[in-house]
Specification:
heterotrimer; A alpha+beta (384); B alpha/beta (398); C alpha/beta (260); B: 398 residues; alpha/beta; 7-stranded parallel beta sheet; 5-stranded parallel beta sheet; C: alpha/beta
């Protein structure tokens, strides 16, 4: 399908594809096996100007928007969703600065992220606060020109490998969700340490760690927006970032589908390629259609955000939810097409399936997404 | 364009359309028509046309006093005073060419303290050995070597000049040919003399090694060619042969150089040099990955051979370049060459097809490698090779 | 540091096949690519620029569509490109090619280092690099696998030889041909690709160069092809098909006497 991309967007897509095919695919299985952070690839991405695709030019980026970010994440995820997360997770950590950072904060943090010198991370989830963000325990207590952070964040993508962290913490517990604030915390700040690295089912090239804050003092200059805006910043960030997760899921689905389609043409049974059997053909047709529908939804949502639309929660949840469900079903079917070979690690499809699962879970489970969509539908009805 | 069909002469015989390697010739109204976008001006059609109906505008220049150029020369490449074995191979071919021309074979030797090797070169077939012994020529350097050779060639005027396609030979001879404004053909796999005109027929793989081309340098002398190690057989030693040793003096000012050799560092490889091995087990794209070369090593070890590789496997980074067999790698001539998962592009074939026995293992029965194979096994190499290793071990242990 | 990198557009020879019926090369669908060996020269040129500052100019001779390889080189970090293209250059052998490129380089005038790949994958001659150096009367180092340093108008490089390497010093300006061991080429950058898209690439014709027309193209080429053929096949061998075990047994049987 032709999405009428601009010349620059096509150039970006082709370059990302080249990186995925030449640099990521050959090493994806190895990084997955070793659970190693892909620094070599990050270097390649930086050298090719891909780390700052979504950051404005005045801060050293390429000046693209959410659509450009989605193209980047989709293409890299075709190679390896875990490796793609080094940039996608950074984008998530950078979004709050792009949205609510003041000029000084933008000047200080964005250029290094755009050049790929530093990675970023976003920290909201806690052991007891997953979908229920408001039950957050981490506190930030004002002390003169400083805030003092205490508490633990977990399941933090790029945790330990990123330099710049956007952390949501409670500045006033009494106010509930209106008592949360957002801060920028740099790696190396005294009182800020890392806990264990998680061993995961998929996206194993991405690091997931605990962040531990023990009387960690940060300057009040590091407050993003105003005190009490933390929860809003978190939600606006998610609205912006969900199409990116959708794009990650889309890339996974596309990668698995490409492998399955090729295999179905090569694998012969009963004297002909299995792609000549209707049972396989119907599967391929359904997979391809689902993928295309997901892409159309993601690109349309991304364009809407880039055009400056304010109310985007519903669409961005739809994009993330639909694409990740597609990724799960397509990767399962891809294994089915590969048969027994799909189940063993010599072939790439089992990894796509393991990687797909997380996209239905993080940045809001698909159940939460459905709730957001439904709440927005009801809200819209009442407005009429 | 510099090529055209002379319609009055064209009989519509279609021969030219069949010889054109680029399919640039087609027939229209019973006359040949050239598609200039496809034509590379290679001239194959001109040669094939029996009616002189294709005209190609060729070089009008020619070497002055061309008919005075006589004899065959071979560059006696030496490293640290040792004459390289490719020289002996060139002497055997050079002898053959000189005899066909009814001319003398000379070997030119540049270096320092090298005079005692002259006799051996005569035993290997040279009629004359021309020596320039000068401390400035002790090690190869492009500029002094070029100037020395140009000076000697201008003085003696050989008709044919052969040189090994070694690192030294290729750099040096390219410069010499430009200075002399003459033709040079790299990596010849066949050399012969045109029986009528006495031209040097230089045959080499062309167009990426997919086909062979015979190249001429009709109007320029000397006709220069490089030949790779192991393409021709070494000349046998005949200690009864007699010849002339000519010492040439060159002025030191002629031998200045803008490059300076600071050091020579030898890197000894742990594996057997494939060019010298009697048995080679080679792997190509079908090996699927670097880790799988282990099964070839096991087979090579069982047979006391070395492991080679196609260009595809080297380009993929699975094997180091030093193991590459083929047009851009090494030319080998072992007793047994076992090609595993190598499809057999000409580029590879030219590097190994003079092996005594070629064994091909490939799952594709239509792979071109089977066309040159003495024996072939159609099957999965991952199954065949380990089995072969096992069986050979059993047989050899008996 | 002003660097010129000479590159060539070649057919992807790994894709070229022979039509078994007509014995002609099947070139339809064969992509044109940057000569693989030249990619290392481009990378080394960009690395030298990053190390010593300066500018990299990519130069190619070929048909108009060869401009594509210059844009690719710019995407990889070269600053500009020049295409040398004229019908008069068609049919050039290595002598005429070296002559023409040297004339273009004389017109460019300012350069410290010329970099070339060790050879082109379609002709495999390795003659044009040294040819250019000779025409320009500058020193050369071929088969370079490392550039150690550049200092006081002198360059020290490692030249790969059969048994190891030589360390060679040369004065500048000079020409180097590089082998693949020298580096690992990077992928293009987004900024580079955007620049490559927009940049204007001058195309020089024969009349733009100070040259003698007799030395160009076919007329300036001493060598010519007199015959083209596919090599005669060896006598048909014995092929074993069927179960692996059985084939292997047969093979070992016929070979065993020759192994001892």
């Amino acid at each position: 399908m032709d999405y009428l991309l601009t010349e620059e967007q096509m150039m970006l897509r082709d370059l990302c594809r080249e990186v995925a095919e030449e640099k990521i695919m050959p090493v994806a299985a190895e990084y997955d096996e070793k659970e190693e952070f892909p620094w070599e690839i990050v270097k390649t991405l930086a050298q090719s100007d891909l780390c700052g695709v979504y950051i404005p030019e005045e801060y050293g980026g390429m000046g693209g928007g959410i659509l450009e970010l989605c193209i980047l994440v989709e293409e890299l995820s075709r190679g390896c969703a875990g490796i793609a997360l080094s940039v996608a997770g950074t984008a998530l950590g950078t979004d709050p600065i792009l949205l609510y950072g003041n000029e000084d904060q933008k000047k200080k943090y964005l250029p290094d992220i755009a050049s790929g010198k530093k990675l970023a991370a976003y920290a909201i989830t806690e052991p007891a606060a997953g979908s229920d963000v408001s039950s957050m325990q981490t506190t930030a207590t004002k002390d003169g020109d400083y805030y003092v952070l205490n508490g633990t964040k977990h399941f933090i993508t790029n945790g330990g490998d990123a330099e710049t962290y956007t952390v949501i913490a409670m500045t006033d517990k009494k106010k509930g969700s209106r008592g949360a604030s957002a801060f920028i915390v740099e790696k190396g700040t005294p009182g800020f340490t890392f806990g264990k690295k998680e061993h995961k089912l998929g996206i194993r090239a991405s690091s997931t760690r605990e962040l531990i804050f023990e009387d960690c003092r940060i300057s009040k200059e590091n407050l993003l927006g105003k005190e009490g805006q933390g929860f809003m910043i978190a939600m606006k960030t998610f609205d912006m970032s969900r199409p990116g997760i959708g794009a990650q899921a889309l890339g996974i689905a596309q990668g698995a589908f490409d492998a399955a389609l090729k295999y179905s043409n090569e694998r012969e049974q009963f004297g002909k390629p299995i792609s000549s059997f209707q049972g396989i053909q119907f599967m391929l047709a359904d997979m391809a259609t689902q993928i295309e529908a997901a892409r159309a939804l993601i690109y349309a949502t991304a364009r809407q955000i880039d055009a400056g639309a304010k109310e985007i929660s519903k669409e961005s949840s739809m994009a993330k939810m639909f694409a990740s469900d597609v990724a799960m079903s397509v990767t399962v079917d891809a294994i089915q097409i590969f048969g027994g070979y799909g189940y063993i690690k010599e072939y790439p499809v089992e990894k796509y399936m393991r990687d797909a699962k997380i996209t239905q879970i993080y940045e809001g489970t698909n159940q939460i997404q459905r709730s957001i969509i439904a709440l927005n539908l009801i809200k819209e009805l009442k407005k009429k | 364009m510099d090529i055209r069909i002379i319609n009055e002469k064209c009989t519509g015989c279609t021969i030219c359309t069949k010889v054109c390697p680029f399919a640039a010739l087609t027939m229209h109204s019973k006359k040949a028509v050239i598609d200039y976008d496809k034509c590379s001006l290679c001239g194959a059609c001109v040669d094939s046309c029996k009616f002189d109906a294709i005209e190609i505008k060729r070089s009008s220049s020619r070497t002055p006093n061309l008919e005075e150029y006589k004899g065959v020369w071979v560059l006696g490449e030496q490293r640290r005073g040792h004459v390289q074995s490719v020289v002996f191979e060139l002497l055997s071919k050079g002898r053959e060419l000189a005899d066909k021309l009814g001319a003398e074979l000379s070997c030119v030797l540049l270096g320092h303290n090298i005079k005692d090797t002259a006799e051996h070169l005569i035993h290997r077939g040279a009629d004359n050995v021309i020596i320039v012994d000068n401390p400035k020529l002790e090690h190869f350097m492009d500029e002094p070597y070029t100037k020395a050779l140009v000076q000697l060639i201008r003085k003696y005027r050989p008709a044919v000049f052969l040189c090994g396609a070694t690192v030294v030979g290729r750099s040096l001879i390219s410069r010499v040919a430009v200075k002399l404004h003459t033709g040079l053909t790299a990596d010849c796999t066949g050399l012969d003399i045109d029986p009528k005109e006495g031209f040097l027929l230089q045959t080499r793989p062309a167009f990426g090694g997919n086909i062979m081309a015979t190249i001429l340098s009709k109007n320029h002398r000397p006709q220069m060619a490089t030949v790779r190690h192991k393409v021709f057989k070494e000349a046998v030693v005949d200690t009864s042969r007699k010849g002339k040793v000519i010492e040439e003096e060159l002025t030191s000012t002629l031998l200045t150089s803008r490059t300076k050799l600071l050091d020579i560092v030898e890197e000894i490889e742990s594996t057997i040099n494939i060019a010298e091995a009697d048995i080679i087990v080679s792997g190509g794209r079908g090996m699927k990955g670097p880790e799988n070369f282990k099964i070839l090593e096991e087979l090579a070890q069982a047979l006391g051979g070395a492991v080679g590789s196609s260009r595809a496997a080297v380009d993929a980074g699975w094997m180091p370049y030093s193991h590459q067999v083929g047009q851009t790698g090494k030319t080998v001539c072992p007793k047994i060459y076992i090609a595993c998962g190598i499809s057999g592009q000409i580029q590879h074939l030219v590097g190994m097809q003079s092996s005594d026995i070629i064994i091909a293992i490939n799952k594709d029965p239509d792979a071109p490698i089977f066309n040159v194979a003495t024996f072939g096994v159609v099957g999965d190499l991952f199954e065949v090779v380990p089995l072969l290793t096992k069986k050979f071990k059993e047989v050899l242990n008996k | 540091m002003n660097i010129i990198v000479c590159i060539k557009q070649v057919p992807d020879t790994t894709q070229v096949k022979i039509d078994p019926v007509t014995n002609t090369l099947i070139r339809d669908g064969v992509e044109s690519i940057v000569n693989p060996f030249d990619a290392y020269a481009v990378e080394e040129a960009v690395r030298l620029k990053e190390r010593y500052g300066g500018k990299v100019l990519a130069l190619t001779m070929g048909p108009p569509q060869a401009e594509a390889v210059l844009r690719e080189a710019i995407g990889l970090g070269c600053d500009e490109g020049i295409l040398v293209s004229d019908r008069a250059f068609a049919g050039s052998d290595t002598l005429a090619t070296g002559y023409t490129l040297a004339a273009a380089i004389r017109k460019i005038k300012i350069f410290d280092i010329i970099l070339c790949g060790k050879q082109a994958s379609d002709g495999d001659t390795a003659q044009v690099g040294p040819g250019i150096a000779t025409q320009l009367d500058i020193p050369q180092i071929t088969y370079v696998k490392k550039i150690e340093k550049i200092e006081d108008n002198k360059l020290i490089a490692h030249r790969m030889i059969e048994e190891g390497f030589e360390m060679i010093e040369t004065s500048l300006p000079c020409l180097l041909t590089v082998v693949k061991e020298i580096n690992e080429p990077r992928l293009p950058s987004l900024k580079g690709k955007m620049k490559a898209k927009k940049i204007e690439i001058p195309a020089w014709k024969a009349i733009d160069l100070d040259i003698d027309e007799v030395q160009l193209g076919l007329t300036g080429s001493p060598t010519w092809v007199s015959k083209i053929f596919t090599p005669p096949p060896r006598p048909k061998g014995e092929i074993f098909e069927g179960a692996a075990e059985e084939s292997v047994n047969k093979l070992v049987e016929v070979l065993k006497d020759r192994l001892k």
